Amino acid sequence: MNIPNNLKYTKSHEWVRVEGDTAVVGITDHAQHELTDIVYVEPPALDSAVEAGKECAVVESVKAASDIYAPVSGDVVAVNEQLGNAPELVNKDPYGQGWLFKVKLRDPGQVDELLSAQEYAAHIGA
Amino acid sequence: MFADRHIGPSADEIQHMLRVVGHESLDALVDAAIPAAIRLRRPLALPAPRPEPALLADLKAMMARNKITKSFLGRGYYGCFLPPVLQRNILENPGWYTAYTPYQPEISQGRLEALLNFQTMVTDLTGLEIANASLLDEATAAAEAMMMCHRLETKGRNTFVVAPDCHPQTIAVVQTRAEPLGINIVLGKELTPDTFGILVQYPATDGAIYDYSAFCTEAHKHLALVVVATDLLALTLLKPPGEFGADIAVGSTQRFGLPLGYGGPHAAFFATRDAYKRQMPGRLIGVSKDAQGRPALRLALQTREQHIRREKATSNICTAQVLPAVIAAMYAVWHGPDGLKRIAERIHQFACRIGSDTGLPFFDTVRVGDRIIALDETTTEEDLRALGVNISDTDVSSPIPATLRRTTPFLTAPVFHRYHTEHEMLRYLRRLEAKDLSLTTSMIPLGSCTMKLNATAEMMPVTWPEVGQLHPFVPVRNAAGYHEMFRQLETWLAEITGFAAIALQPNAGSQGEYTGLLVIRAYHRRRGQGHRNICLIPVSAHGTNPASATMAGMKVVPVACDAAGNIDLTDLRAKAGQHAHDLAALMVTYPSTHGVFEETITEVCRIVHDHGGQVYLDGANLNALVGLARPGDFGADVCHLNLHKTFCIPHGGGGPGMGPIGVAEHLVDFLPGHPVVNLGGEDPIGPVAAAPYGNASVLPIAWMYIALMGAAGLKRASQVAILNANYIARRLDPYFPVLYKGPGGLVAHECIVDCRQFKDVQVEDIAKRLMDYGFHAPTMSWPVPGTLMIEPTESESKAELDRFCDAMIAIHTEIQTTPAILKNAPHTAAVVAADQWDRPYSREQAAYPAPWLRDHKYWPPVGRVDNVYGDRHLVCTCGPVA
């Protein structure tokens, strides 16, 4: 299972990559594998505010709909438009082209509270 | 005796099977399986059973008391002609009416194609982009539309405006559904700043046609959505709602061939814009491809639905109106666009010769003085003259202005042009029927679905004119036969469930759940406890439970189950205690969704009552209780009955169903009312369905079943259902371990077998391989992922049970020896007969793995359907003209 060292993680299987004052959010390789083929991603609305730990998006496979929880609080400044026509990017490249949305960090300190790669690996028993 | 033909195993076979499960007698088996504390210790007080001819004669005489006259009442229900070729080959044909909901698409392609025709017909006529495969009735479809607009609302606005010239039952059902959700309903046609959506009817209930184009533009400026309730036959002449700006169109397809049936069953439709498809309620058929890349149909976007999304689902709807939808679609196939237009123009011309006092354009309904006269396909010149109003003797020009006339073509797909002769239609229907696996082929052992016998004698009354040709709003004295039948059926169902009263209105199980919860809510309010809004639901519950609770304005709190699959009493006590102040209800299925008679059920009910809650018993599994135990006796306050499971109404490929509720004495006052027909309790909740008695014309099926079986026959049916399930459990346990067992190591009327122990083979592979053996898979991965839930019902003979077990055991061997054969299943004739064959097993093994297949082979028409492709490339209508 691919768990890049340079990212932060949540117990609910989201990852975060900090770019300046912005957090890029996606779901982990483990999560996409468990969900199987993704057929639809419902991103948060652009410019909406998300709260850490609260559901803000949905990822669907044929058989399941899974809520995505915001890892950090802030305003949504971008959503991955490509997923509209190509939701399979979440399966193929969960840490790259399969990113879900970007949040302008309200409290950068929240990132430090997230799991490290090692802690996430232990969490999923990898 | 009828009971001996309804019940599969003979007396000798029952003795043999009892030995296999280790009990002396049926009574001893049931004593071991069902907790003694809840047992009914006396026979049900029901009339003695009588033979088929006598009961058919009795019912015929009763129904002859219905006064059948030409109806000009309209309001959503119109006389029409069901083409005989459709009556005999669909409505009266077990190949169509005994099929199940098409969750296994490979063996459901026939009805999936018919439903795709339905969706195409609706999108074409409404001018909208996407339509579902039916809802319960026009009024609930309008309520679903309101809820969808509410979900799409982003500004927090809370008012839904309803035009007062909608049908009265539509307005009333919308009001019922809005109230618990806190949605404000305003009657009128004016937008307010708080308005998120508006419902208008086109043509209106008094027949008047308004041009809503400017109105839609205005609504969209306010970012409000417009719902148009409409009539498909009128839309063959009128500008379709999608062209003047409607966001959603709803209505009934009843006049496309369906008998009035004193209110139902009829299929409602729901169409909307492509952008809103994920918010749409109900089942949706989509085109995908099979393993060989050929087109194949399936249910699409199921993640919207209650069985996956639970309390977050778009709706609680489960059973819809598939059989009526199939008939309506085939009525359009039969007549084609030109034929439909001819029918519409003939009716319209009759209406023109009367003329309307409204001074507005009309289609088929006119106002003369204080009379509203609705004409239909069955109206004749003589009827017109008998109306006693002034009519013109010559043709009168249409009042519909050019701006409101339809200009776009419709039903252009080839299917609507190919089957206009009876031979062509007969063969088309037969071809589709042959693609599907129904009860006419083999047992359909679907856990929780109860695919028992739908006896011919029970079905015959459905197409009697005395049953079919009655408008739901005729004066009650003109429906005396129906009302006598209702009274008897209510008395019998009350005796069977141990309740004080029965309400026949809910027209599906999920609708029954919703109604029951509203009744509980009304009860708490009456007692000044209106704040009670917590609904406890075990995690093992059917998805409709949390979805219904949410619609009833309740907050769902899940209750854990223990390792044995039973409700975790510690967790229940904790949750009930924690929410004691706000506890409204517990929803519990009995026997449980895990197929077990939980010994703690009386304790469960007591805990809830002690904390001020009411117990809602989901009657999905009532077929294991009839004559053995009564929910009303062991602690339930409300229970719904799935007449389409326990009482023999066929599944129809996914509806119609009926979900009446039984209630204890203290809840009788709140039973639902109706705006047109007087019924319900002293202090009724609003109507939950368009028709006062739901799908009234299928109730004779349940009446016939109870009358034919009598108390002893019904009890024996429950006993044999339990025996059959335990026999299967015993035979399969060494190969596929039975997951949950109750007292005495016994299961109830169904069993869950584990399929998670194999390395390369998943439960889905086993399900698809069963098709090669000529069987429908049991319920797959519900309520436990990776398992099969098997429910044989009492109607399957020992020979059929053994054939099914032999197939499962043979598949178990294949899992060890030839897993590829499961991965490639099902095998079509085209695959097996192809010149190329490079598989690690023989063609014979693929297609004829069991001896009985030499006698009769059912060929799956398509290979494994690609679900992912279908949901990623959604197509929900037939192709255009080639």
Tell me what the structure shows.
The complex is a heterodimer of chains A (126) and B (882). Chain A starts with 7 loop residues before the first strand and ends with a helix. Chain A has one domain: RNA polymerase II/Efflux pump adaptor protein, barrel-sandwich hybrid domain (OB fold (Dihydrolipoamide Acetyltransferase, E2P), Beta Barrel), CATH 2.40.50.100. Helices cover 17% and strands 35% of the residues of chain A. In chain A, the strands form two sheets. Chain A has a six-stranded antiparallel beta sheet. A three-stranded antiparallel beta sheet of chain A has the order 4-6-7. The radius of gyration of chain A is 13 Å and the shape is globular. Chain A is of the alpha+beta class and 126 residues long. By secondary structure, chain B is α/β, with parallel strands linked by helices. Chain B has a domain of 403 residues: Aspartate Aminotransferase, domain 2 (3-Layer(aba) Sandwich), CATH 3.40.640. Chain B has a seven-stranded mixed beta sheet, sandwiched between helices. In chain B, strands 12-18-17-16-15-13-14 form a seven-stranded mixed beta sheet, with helices on both faces. Chain B has a three-stranded antiparallel beta sheet with strand order 19-21-20, with helices on one face. In chain B, helix 4 packs across helix 19, helix 7 runs parallel beside helix 13 and helix 8 crosses helix 9. The longest helix of chain B is centred in the last third of the chain and has 34 residues. Chain B is globular, with a radius of gyration of 27 Å. Chain B starts with a helix and ends in a 10-residue tail after the last helix. The mean pLDDT of chain B is 96. At the A-B interface, strand 4 of A face helix 31 of B.
